[in-house]
Specification:
The structure is a single chain. By secondary structure, the chain is an alpha/beta fold. The protein contains 12 helices and 13 strands. β6, α4 and β7 form a beta-alpha-beta unit. α5 crosses α10 and α8 crosses α11. The radius of gyration is 22 Å and the shape is globular.
């Protein structure tokens, strides 16, 4: 029976990457004939925020890299060196002990040494971010030329290590083309949970957006766009759902007098029900690794109006078939796209049906069969 090791990092807080890694691990533990192992590094003894199949064997090295985020720069550099050295030693010892067939890394700190471990396993790296903003160093106290220099050195090191992997996996075809130096690459997108409930009727005057309240998600741009939409369609409501600090966005909404048209909600475990109550999904991110919420909304039958940001939306949405792709960052065009969907119910209904069909390409069996085929080929 093949042994497969996944490097997850932390399960104390929920991140998109840790969630999808756990979903893959659980799928393989349930549906494939593999021994699955999981490596953690953060806060041993603290309860996990995600469920992991009891068949999975796991170890926590208790390195606690997350502590570095609370340290000043010089202290951070010193303790990073100590933690990284400990991590490399424990990681190497563990792989040499269990002798896996395949080791899967999310290209975090272990990418700096994983190829040098002579445990006999094939090494796979999967990147959950698109290239443009991955390993882009920026310190506001340093001159730009130093930031650029550090970014280049950091990126060159990453590319050199990726080239030594047996396979390099990216989430989108758009990002695939951004790695011309890499020959051992392939595309396998993330998957969504299968949806078996009723699809949205697309009759309610509600649009929805979902994702954390951060600059990357572009809610400031969406609020500006909705201020244009509201002039023509004041009876429509935009519901935003997500974790994080939403006060800045609520203050902007109040200043624009849109408190009846835009509602900032906390995250919900009933997001599919919220999708089903809506008639349109809006995606305003400045950039993404994939944009899983797009496929999730489409699985409930919602057409999408989305910025064509790097990377993800153009891999999921077929323009004017199951949604609209809008020039990235163009607030006026985003507002026009939303208004077009609002004003054309028959087109909205048609696109919603196409979106429902498209989303099934991202169901677990479809995506994980590609992973299993990769494992078997190695």
């Amino acid at each position: 029976m093949k042994k497969i090791v996944y490097v997850v990092g932390g399960l104390v807080g929920i991140s998109g990457m840790s969630k999808i890694l756990c979903q893959k691990i659980n799928y393989l533990a349930c549906h494939a004939n593999y021994d699955i192992y999981m490596i953690l590094t953060e806060k041993a003894g603290v309860p996990w925020s995600l469920d992991v199949n009891p068949k999975v064997k796991w170890i926590n090295f208790d390195i606690n890299f997350d502590e570095l985020d609370t340290m000043p720069t010089l202290k951070k550099v010193f303790f990073y060196y100590l933690k990284q050295r400990k991590y490399k030693r424990r990681f190497t010892e563990y792989l040499m002990k269990i002798r896996p067939d395949i080791t899967v890394s999310a290209l975090r700190r272990e990418i700096n040494f994983i190829n040098n471990i002579k445990d006999g396993s094939k090494k796979i790296g999967e990147l959950h971010f698109e290239r443009t903003f991955y390993r882009k160093y920026h310190n506001k106290y340093l001159p730009n030329f130093i930031n650029h220099y550090i970014t280049k050195k950091w990126t060159d090191s990453l590319i050199s290590n990726i080239q030594k992997l047996d396979r390099f996996i990216v989430l989108t075809h758009e990002d695939y083309n951004k790695w011309p130096e890499i020959k051992n690459k392939m595309v396998i997108p993330n998957f969504i949970d299968e949806y078996h409930g009723e699809t949205a009727t697309l009759e309610n005057k509600i649009a929805i957006a979902a994702g954390s309240y951060t600059w990357v998600k572009g809610y400031d741009l969406l609020i500006e766009a909705w201020s244009i939409v509201a002039k023509s369609h004041p009876d429509w409501t935009l519901n935003i759902f997500g974790p994080g600090e939403k006060r800045t966005y609520e203050e902007s909404i109040l200043k624009k007098g849109l408190e009846k048209q835009i509602i900032c909600n906390p995250p919900t475990h009933q997001i599919n029900e919220k999708y089903r109550e809506s008639s349109l999904f809006v995606f305003s991110s400045r950039h993404e690794g994939f944009g899983l919420v797009i496929a999730e909304a489409m699985s409930v039958g919602l057409p999408v109006v989305s910025f064509a940001c790097p990377c993800g939306p153009s891999d999921i949405i077929t323009h004017e078939k199951d949604g609209l792709l809008i020039e990235n960052g163009n607030i006026q065009k985003l507002a026009e796209g939303i208004c077009y969907m609002i004003e054309n119910q028959s087109i909205r209904q048609k696109m919603g049906k196409q979106a429902y069909q498209k989303a099934q390409k991202f169901y677990p069996n479809e995506i994980m069969s590609q992973w299993i085929e990769l494992f078997e080929s190695l």
